[in-house]
Amino acid sequence: MESLADRAYLVTGGGTGIGAATALHLARLGASVTVVGRRKDPLDAVVAEVERQGGKALAHPTDVRDPEAVEAAVDATIEKFGRIDGLVNNAAGNFVTPAEKLSPNGWRAVVDIVLNGTWNCTSAVARRLIDADRPGAIVSVIATYAWTGHPGTVHSAAAKAGVVAMTRTLAVEWAKYGIRLNCIAPGPTETDGAGGALWASPEDRDRVLSSVPLNRFAAPPEIGDLVGLLLSDRTAYVTGEVLTADGGQWLGRQIYGPPLPTH
Ligand code: HXC
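Above: inputs. Below: predicted complex with hexanoyl-coenzyme A.
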């Protein structure tokens, strides 16, 4: 239970959903956590909950699209906790739209958050680790449509595919510094953000659920648990990998004929 004792991590999109659950979990594993996101109130609520449970956390309102703001968040982490050991790239933006109706600004907003934001945070944290000659671990939250694609989310799918390529490239390039990089690909997870954007109606919810062989949504804490595993030394020999936690959803996609009854 103390697998991240005395370490410090930055969690982006840490105020809500998977990010908040991950921050709480990392704190329970002994880590200090800086939660960043655009809105201060949810970040403050996560810090209050971490502290109520006896952990250490810092809220730092930050837009991951802004490299200077990201640098400031890393500085604040080191100032407050004396170190930084890694990062969880969880911040995302997404909405469903036919590709032909997607405006240049809509494309830019999602790619800026998901791909450029991940690079801003990854490079900022890694440079500190390299300068300090310390090992570290970085986990990025993606989606299985990074490799399958998915109609209606061309911006997000393209950006998440870029994050996978970034992860695999840097896993090799920065192995010599002892920096590991991995991705986690959650399936449909019970959060307001994804749920509100992607399966808002009961019909959409049923449709999504019926696509999951294990026949349920993921709970945010179980994704946080896997992020904690990938940050910990229990996976010290794992780098450049994608851990899929989707209840079998993408493997169960039926290309020919009606879906097989899985439940
Ligand atoms: C069409 C839309 C739109 C929508 C925004 N836009 N929402 N177009 N349908 N529903 C367009 C806007 O019209 C605008 O283009 C451009 O996108 C930028 O919008 P802004 O609101 O100005 O941008 P911003 O405030 O930066 O917001 C970014 C955002 C927003 C991505 C649009 O939704 C956001 O910040 N979301 C964060 C939370 C989130 O989405 N979480 C879910 C992640 S789930 P124009 O041309 O009009 O200027 C996920 C993985 C799910 O990613 C995987 C499931 C398996």
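The chain is about 45% helix and 15% strand.
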